[in-house]
Amino acid sequence: MYVLGIESTAHTFGVGIVKDGEVIANERDTLKPAQGGIIPREAAAHHYRLAPMLLKAAIDKAGIKMKDIDVVGFSQGPGLIPALKVGYQVAHLISEKYGAKVVGVNHCIAHLEIARKYTGLEDPVMLYVSGGNTQVITYQGGRYLVFGETQDIGVGNLIDKIGRKMGMPFPAGPKIENMARSGRKYIKLPYSIKGMDVSFTGMETFVSRIIGREKSEDVSFSLQETIFAMLIEASERAMAYCRKDSLVITGGVAANSRLNDMGEVMCRERGAVSKRIPLEYAGDNGAMIAYTAYLMKDYRQRDLTIKPRYRTDTVEIKYR
Ligand code: AMP
Ligand code: MG
Questions:
Q1: Quick one: which atom of ligand 1 is closest to the CA of 252?
Q2: All domains of the chain, ordered by start, with CATH?
Q3: In sequence order, what DSSP letters do the residues of 141-188 get, joined into one string?
Q4: Is the CB of 163 under 6 A from ligand 1?
Q5: Does 73 sit in the ligand 1 pocket, CB within 6 Å?
């Protein structure tokens, strides 16, 4: 059985194909604005422009034809409305033209499922960190429960905003990570964790004021040390509370090796395991949507519209 998955929630348009649950193609392109952040309309224009080429590239890579596709999955949300509409339209067009069944997928759950698949960890606490999302998630009673989350902006967003103020183009994550390696001085920054939730706008204001006054290397280093410590603290508390003995970090920010290192140290100290997911599947991609649609096998969904504020914990998981 061939399942094609389309990802279009934000800056990335991705097309993945799985054959009987194994990934055989994963093509994508990310909008990188020359300056400033992502404008939803521009993301949609990017996706419309690249969709035909990426679809063809994925189909060719898989060595199949469009008519071989049995199911087409798409990201229903959460995400930017104009960007989500592109995935919706492409999925429905493929369905009309080639007779594939449509499955709507929650983008966050797709990140979690691809992480479980590639780490082999069955029931971990998951730290999901991307541009727009920051959540600590565990599986309980047929749902992915959000134990803790950001009260304002996503951690990737914070990193990108601060990077932009330091003159770095989007996405700033990898550049900040590099710069942080040469940081020597730890500048005390606001450590904002309330219960299980974190908050980042105070950090944004504080750091904005010290940019230019402190060395960029030291700012990057202190920023990473502080925000990652907050995230790992929340994850550890979720592990203790839910008695789970493994951790997976997923989402675009999971590409950061310092964050993974900190997760590993925390796990080692409590006799738990943590495994890294392959870089290819850390950020937004079509393969995770195809794979999750394959797991769901839910061909009778009543609501196949886009859901810009689709929450992880509203989805009933029937396949676990
Ligand atoms: P996603 O929305 O899941 O595709 O994740 C994109 C976000 O991941 C952006 O905010 C990037 O800045 C961030 N990101 C990518 N690579 C890294 C990295 N090495 N360190 C920190 N953040 C990163
Ligand atoms: Mg994402």
A1: 5
A2: 2-110+281-314 (3.30.420.40), 121-278 (3.30.420.40)
A3: TTEEEEEEEBSSS-HHHHHHHHHHHTTPPSP-HHHHHHHHTT---PPP
A4: no
A5: no
